[in-house]
Amino acid sequence: MPDAHLGPELFDFLRDLRANNNREWFQANRERYERDVKEPLLAFIAAFAAPLAQISPHIRADPRPTGGSLFRIYRDVRFSKDKSPYKTHAAAQFRHKRCRGDVQTPGFYLHLEPEQVFAGAGIWRPDSASLQRIRQALVEHPERWTRAISHPEFRKSCQLSGDTLKRPPRGFAKDHPLIEDLKRKDFVAAEPFDEATATRPDFLDRFAAFCRKSAPFMEFLAGALDLEW
After folding, report:
1. Could you give the strand order of the β-sheet that contains 90-94, starting from the edge strand earlier in sequence?
2. Residue 191: DSSP 8-state
3. What is the pLDDT of residue 81?
4. pLDDT digits (tens, 9 = 90+) for 100-145
5. Whole-number Å distance between alpha carbons of 213 and 221
6. Which residue, 94, 104, 102, is CA-closest to 59?
7. DSSP class per residue in 85-131
8. Cα–Cα dist 222/126, whole Å
9. Beta strand pairing status for 116-123 and 187-193?
10. Distance between CA 181 and CA 36 in Å, rounded?
11. Which of 19, 35, 155, 167 is at 20 to 30 A from 146, Cα to Cα?
12. Is 85:23 a contact under the CB 8 Å cutoff?
């Protein structure tokens, strides 16, 4: 198996791409992208499959170059005023095996960008039906939710983030003990890292540790959506 170590060259390329976000520069530096970004990340994804299977056998690490866990470098500019053709970050998502089309599932996420590196877990922008099911699960099983986000290791390094409503969602009491969580529109936990940590030989182990810490949070979300964990 190729070395799963992410080198500083990955961030060097992304910095240069940020300063030269055009097709001519990218084509001239495509070999750098393949060597310093894409191939190391595919090796990282492949190496993560074994520890991920110990966390949940239903979340997949897919090292295929296309259609797998690695996000494309190309931006979708069809509905954006910003017509820059390339993303200036690299990312991977580890999805539930039942994630197909419009099926809403929680997953793990790795974001690599100069000055912004973080690991994520949960579900971002769930559709209205999925969001309603998660909120209902909070009401029906508040002790499970509280236990999932109150573990000392989780609280020490993971932060719940994402957008929230300004007012309580319709159908939920404004004085509910979990009202601030019920107002969430995203159910995402994240842990920040830095470039030095991301390029250490043990970063895969550190990312796996984050996934283990956030597993109870993920298990709650999976249960709310009737997904295996």
Report:
1. 90-94, 107-113, 116-123, 187-193, 159-161
2. E
3. 84
4. 765 589 999 999 999 999 999 999 999 999 999 999 999 999 999 9
5. 14
6. 94
7. -B-SSEEEEE-BTT--TT----EEEEEEETTEEEEEEEESS--HHHH
8. 12
9. antiparallel
10. 40
11. 167
12. yes
Cα separation of 34 and 150, whole Å? Answer: 41
Selection from 149, 105, 144, 145 nearest residue 127 by Cα: 105
Give the pLDDT score at 139. Answer: 97
What 8-state DSSP symbol labels residue 215? Answer: H
Q: Are strands 116-123 and 159-161 parallel, antiparallel or unpaired?
A: unpaired
C-beta of residue 172 within 8 angstroms of C-beta of residue 139: yes
Kindly write down the DSSP assignment for every residue of 105-117, as one continuous string: --EEEEEEETTEE
CATH 3.30.930 fits 8-224, yes or no: yes
Q: Which amino acid is at 165?
A: L
Would you mind telling me the total number of residues written for the chain in this entry?
229
Both structure tokens of 106: 């929680």
Residues in the chain with pLDDT < 50? 1
pLDDT at residue 100, rounded to an integer: 72
Q: How far is it, in rounded angstroms, from Cα 146 to Cα 156? A: 15
What is the distance in angstroms between the CA of the first residue and the CA of the last residue of the chain? 28
Contacts of 46 (CB under 8 A, 6+ apart): 1, 2, 4, 61, 63
Name the residue ranges covered by the structural domains of the chain.
Answer: 8-224
